[in-house]
Amino acid sequence: MRLATLLALAAITLPYSAAEAAQDPYSYAEPDKVRVRHAELDLALDFPARVIAGTVTLDLDWRDARASALNLDTRDLAIERVEALDEAGHARALSYTLAAPDPELGSRLGIAAPGRPARVRIAYRTAPTASGLQWLDRQQTADKQAPFLFSQSQSIHARSWIPLQDTPAVRFSYAARVRAAQGITVLMSALRQPVQGDVQRFDQPQPIPSYLMAIAAGALAEQATSKRAAVWAEPSQVAAAAREFGDIEAMMRTTEQLYGPYRWGRYDMLVLPPSFPFGGMENPEMTFLTPTVIAGDKSLVSVVAHELAHSWSGNLVTSATWRDIWLNEGFTTYVENRIVEAVYGKTQADEEFVVAAGELKHKMPSLSENQQRLAPVPREVGADDALTDVAYVKGAWFLRFLEARFGRVVFDAYLRDYFDHFAFQSITTEQMLDYLRANLVDRHPGKVDWDQVEQWVYAPGLPESATLPAVPAFTAIDTARAAFLHGTLGAAALPGGDWNTHEWLYFLDHLPEAPTLVQVQALDAAWSLSRSSNAEIGMRWLPRAVRAGDHEVWPAARAYMLRIGRMKLTLPVYRAFAGSAQGLAYAEAAYAAHKAEYHPLTQRAIEKVLREAHAQPVADAAR
Ligand SMILES: [Zn+2]
User: Fold this and answer.
1) pLDDT tens digits for 152-174?
2) Burial group, residue 110, by CB count within 10 angstroms (0-12, 13-18, 19+)
3) For residues 385 and 396, what is the distance between their CA atoms, to the nearest angstrom?
4) 254-281 exposure pattern, b = at least 16 Cβ within 10 A, e = fewer
5) Domain 319-458: which topology?
6) Measured in angstroms, how far is the CA atom of residue 312 from the centroid of ligand 1?
7) What is the 3-state secondary structure (H, E, C) of 528-552?
8) Cα 408 to middle of ligand 1, angstroms
9) Among candidates 468, 399, 392, 476, which has minimal Cα distance to 440?
């Protein structure tokens, strides 16, 4: 019986071979021939020129005795010199070729390595337009005291500031020495070492994948939140940030109780300027955070729980390719929700998951079949494009399904063993599934059919076994919203004064995409939604008000999209303006005047929205 179902589903599971799934199509590295084991960086930051220059020395583990070349990933790097180092540190020049750039992958740096040297040193400099770096003038910072630099290496942007094997399949430790001007504090995804003169030093003793290489520099202050955790930010921001993220130690203890010890020593957080394109980035020992999660009431700290959770799922056990990224993000979204439940209660955890699941369901139809899979067909998905709600929310939903079937006690113990078993390794979906089958599904027969697992992982859409917790507050909100939309309940009579942030998000998420102008004006008059300082409320409200044709919200919407560079928040506002000819012109003018303040990734995403709007006939030009 079981065998028959398995055979019937073989067609979904194997549209490609396991060997193909294990290949990373986004890197020129050949990790089966040679692997970087350790990197030593010696860098200088040149703010006026917007350049990082220096050397990286790579310790190599040759795995193929016939190999005679080292292929590295680079993008827009100027390579000045490549040398082999012998045990005494003597250098011998190596010949190399920098290939013509591929628009997505960058340039392959092919280094002739006869004799397979154990250490190779590369002298290089970055381009001012490096895709993984953003350089800010002091005017673009909160305090306007000093310029600012930060990196964002995920997915394949580490290669724009370090020549290396830029694939999550390769893990290496690193040490760094960085020179910067007086008054500039440098932080990296590593433990800080005592400063020597004008050299700031770092040590990352654990093997990490390249996308976790990170650097930031600026006028920064530190405030401790516990013995092993601190918040870094510009001086004027640091107290508010430390208040908002004050529960970090409680979150760490909760996660350790569930999934084993925190293995990275310190957990520090850096609040970046508003142009940071993501909510957070789980750089080891130094999580990067958008300031948009500082709501003043801890209502958006699930982002911090998420980045902390990556210390287990993602940084400790890592997806081997970008196609497997759901192993990082789905597991992390599940763990994040467990942390929120333990620290803030089950109601908040359930509300957050139901809101996220609603967003996923809303977006699913606009995704291709392949994008709807947790493990998509390799090569049919871009390295940056793999980071969709499918990886995050469908992935977490799958783990919630397993937890419900096997029970929390069994599933928690399983997950803890999983993190131990694969600690400091990079694995594919298929390796995870083999382990799941042997250690959970087959060990507790009768709970889950293997074909259900394969449906979750390999099939598009959501399986029938995807259920959601009941949230009584949301049921009441559905009733109130329906009455408002039918005109039987006035906006001011909505019980919104009793709603927490997540209940407001749920109310807004299920309004029509373009409410009537009368409805928008009534809601705004009663609840001042356009003036909300909560960025998640703005992301849901402002696009609806723009689409409803409410020109009075345009200045607020413009200020929002210029203030916030986090793509998830700012892009919906641009998309709403792009829906009418007049709105498109307004958004384009705003963007043209402020383009330089956005991160390169955000620029690229906004330009895509604007370009696509021009390519489509505008249906509602009259608005
Ligand atoms: Zn994440």
Assistant:
1) 999 999 999 999 999 999 999 99
2) middle
3) 18
4) bbeebbbebebeebbbbbbbbbbbbbbb
5) Neutral Protease; domain 2 (1.10.390)
6) 11
7) CHHHCCCHHHHHHHHHHHHHCCCHH
8) 23
9) 399
Rounded-to-integer distance, Cα 53 and Cα 593, Å: 31
Residue 256 sits at φ, ψ, to 5 deg, of -65, -40
Between vectors from CA 431 to CA 5 and to CA 59, what angle results, nearest 5°?
165
Residues annotated as catalytic are 307, 392
Beta strands in 397-514 (DSSP E): 425-427
Distance 283 CA to ligand 1 centre (A): 10
pLDDT in tens, 447-459: 999 999 999 999 9
Whole-angstrom distance, CA of residue 395 vs CA of residue 336: 12
Assigned CATH topology for domain 472-615: 1.25.40
User: How far does residue 347's CA lie from ligand 1's centre (Å)?
Assistant: 22
pLDDT in tens, 524-582: 999 999 999 999 999 999 999 999 999 999 999 999 999 999 999 999 999 999 999 99
The ranges assigned to domains in the chain are: 25-130+153-197, 319-458, 472-615
Domains 319-458 and 472-615 share a fold: no
- C-alpha count within 13 angstroms, C-beta hemisphere, residue 463: 20
**And the tokens for 513?**
């995409």
Asked whether the beta carbons of 559 and 533 are under 8 A apart, the reply is no
Pairing label, strands 191-196, 199-209? antiparallel
Instruction: Please state whether the predicted TM-score (pTM) of the whole model is above 0.85.
Output: yes
Please say whether the beta carbons of 547 and 514 come within 8 A. Answer: yes
25-130+153-197 has which fold? Immunoglobulin-like (2.60.40)
Q: Which residues contact 617 (CB under 8 A, 6 or more apart)?
A: none
